[in-house]
Amino acid sequence: MTHPKDIKISSPDQFALLNDPNFLNQIVSRYLQQFLETEISSFLQAEPYQRTGERTGYRNGYKPRILKTRVGRIELSVPQDREGRFQSDLFARFQRSEKALILALQEAYLQGVSTRKVTKITEQLCGTAFSKSHVSDLCQELDADIQAWRDRPLEQSYPYLIIDATYLYIRTGGKVVSKSVLIVTGVSQSGHREVLALNVAHSETEATWTTLFKDLKNRGLTGVQLVTSDEHNGLVNALKRHFQGASWQHCQTHFHRNIRGITPPKHQRQVADALKDVFNATDLQTAQRRLNEMIDTYENILPKLAEKLDRDTPHCLTCLDFPQQHRKRLRTTNSLERLNREIKRRADVVQIFPNDQACERLVGALCMEWSEEWITGRRYLDMVHLNTNN
Question: Which residue among 79, 172, 264, 334 sits deepest, i.e. has the most Cβ atoms within 10 Å of its Cβ?
Fold first, then answer.
């Protein structure tokens, strides 16, 4: 039986790595090799040469495998078992978003819209030449996986939805236009987060949100009690139409920004602190009292501000009707904002997507990976509190 090189890093080796221009590649290689070793040990329920009654099989050497990443080509030794049952999840999960990013860059190049910067990045990422047929084959494989994930039935109920949109540049009809990427995440009855849906649309309108919500319902979405979003008119109107009986939470972070935009600079700090005090109230009665005091303070000196506070702030306090243990994570769309920032970071490498499909491929692969990490990770909320509250 052959074995890969020892993956432990001694102190002299650490010093050498830091002085090696390829040290990042080597560090990632060592980490991923350790991941594979841990993975097969878990699969076989035994470490190498370990005697245990729980063992389900035996190792049978290694086979080489190349993983192409943005830190270069990584050579790995994939462990095998005698019966050939072991299949690592590393390559499919690790490469989805990498593959989608590479495809977006390759498509841009093939359609003649790439720059020298894009070409250089593509070569660094791919490490090899590519053809139209190669791109087509990769697209079909990845698109099938992502589409199956987007069409999956929703078998649990989702009491909480968090909804937002981000904007990316896509080449359409010979022009570069900004299009909206609509994303819906949910917290299931088990307390885990998931990315439930995404769609690339020409704009963020009631019609585009309606299409997305209809698709969610057709896939089995039920049990929605609270939806958190910004106050975009098209989105709010679609929510009223398709989620009757559910409460709406106006994202407090978005509302803070809106208030700042209509507040003179010399009052901004004071207004922000007072509004924060309203939002931090532990019950609706206290929040309403603090809000009334704030409105009385600014009614004469800043009438437009007072009017907006009186009209719109109650929608920011909807979360107070839900368990106290859940409010911090329900009162804003911040959890989804972090995903949007990661989408932007990846999209900045491409700069301009060659078509809608390339955009959906990259965003879909990224959302798929995040969703899998959320589902297999720690619970986001303890839903026992919601059941008790009801």
Answer: 79
